[in-house]
Amino acid sequence: MYQQMIFVNLATDDVAASRKFFTELGYTINPQFSTDDCSCVVISDTIIAMLLSKQRYADFTKKEIADARKTSEVLICLSAESREKVDELVDKAVAAGGTVSGETQDHGYMYGRAFDDLDGHTWEVMWMDPAAVQG
Fold first, then answer.
1. Do residues 114 and 125 touch, judged by C-beta distance below 8 A?
2. CA torsion angle 54 60 63 64 (round to 10)
């Protein structure tokens, strides 16, 4: 059965530093699609983050590239299998040089935190009780 994938393309000031940051979070780099100008970060079988130098990113758009430290261009939300996994990933991100973004959201059936990566892109991490999803 076909599984649709998502490739999130993000501009970065320093490809090597971003590569190191995401590997410290436990993700792997696909060397087949990585160069000095791009890191292909494998988040899951269906989620890939392409971290592109600003020069390489500009090859794909005529628009001005947002400075994610000043402007919100996207909020990326990743699911987690438990509250503990939410905390684990955000804590790893902070230890690797990221910063906490916003307040912890705890609604009982849903729990989330967020971090900004080295370039200011916001990554939300959330857990939702499967019983709440089923209705």
1. yes
2. 0
